[in-house]
Amino acid sequence: xxxxxxxxAFYLVTAWAAITINFFxxxxxxxxxxxSLIARYQGQLSTKAMASLYALFGLNQHKSMxxxxxxxxxxLFHGDLGxxxxxxxxxxxxxxxxxxxWTLALVGTTTLISFLLGTGIGVITGWRRGSWMDxxxxxxxxxxxxxxxxxxxxxxxxxxxAWPVFPAAGGFDNGLVPSLSGDFIASAAYHAVLxxxxxxxxxxxxxxxxxxxxxxxxxxxDYVTVAHAKGLSERRVMFSYAARNAVLPNVSGFALSLxxxxxxxxxxxxxxxxxxxxxVLLQAVGAKDYPLMQGIFLIITLSVLVANLLADLAYMLxxxxxxxxx
Length: 326
Prior knowledge:
By secondary structure, this protein is mostly helical.
């Protein structure tokens, strides 16, 4: 329990530091977002409303930076992320709630598939090193070295243009309304095939190589030799003894991947015009949309911290040494 409380205290301090940085960095960027908003809505917003807009967006120039910082924490505790400049006057929480599920569905599913597939193949490849499966590793490494967006462009050229099997852009058919109906879910899954395959092909090789190398190292340990001497089956030794210890580094990597799921794969979303949170973040940065940037960064930060906390808990279950004090 002491270990768990120490980790919780560490993550609370980290969350405070990340939220503080999240407040100051957008305000250090050059430019005036209110002036940009008035220019974009020229003829619809009066310049007389500038003072009200500064106060509405928490950018009141008559307040000190410290007072704005305290107001920011106050709004966070009340669950208010403010209004977006880019999608004015839509609340930031509504925008995140609209686009975040797309990124979670695409990147979350592909990350889980990549981890399970890569870890499983890595276990078998490392346990049976020197077999024909080792010859496939250079191919997997080659695909992992190709950037996401380049694979996406190749996939569009082959499977959407030359051989039109899948759509080249979008998240669903234009004639459908987002809902939980079977037609909409089928259309969304169909549009996610190409970007999903792009992410899986690029990510799976890293999991394979990491797990294979750990399996090669662990298979020579004494406890694996003793397990063989006991007469245990090869399957049990491979999974219960070798893989259980070899998977620990992959668990940490998977936890970090889960945290960055929220950030999405920006380049893939840009190439496929996929309606994810990464594409919205790009628009927010371009428009100096402080509230939207802060809201997205806050969700990303908290998701990374929660994912690391879950990784620590998984370590406690998989490795008894982390539960011992002293």
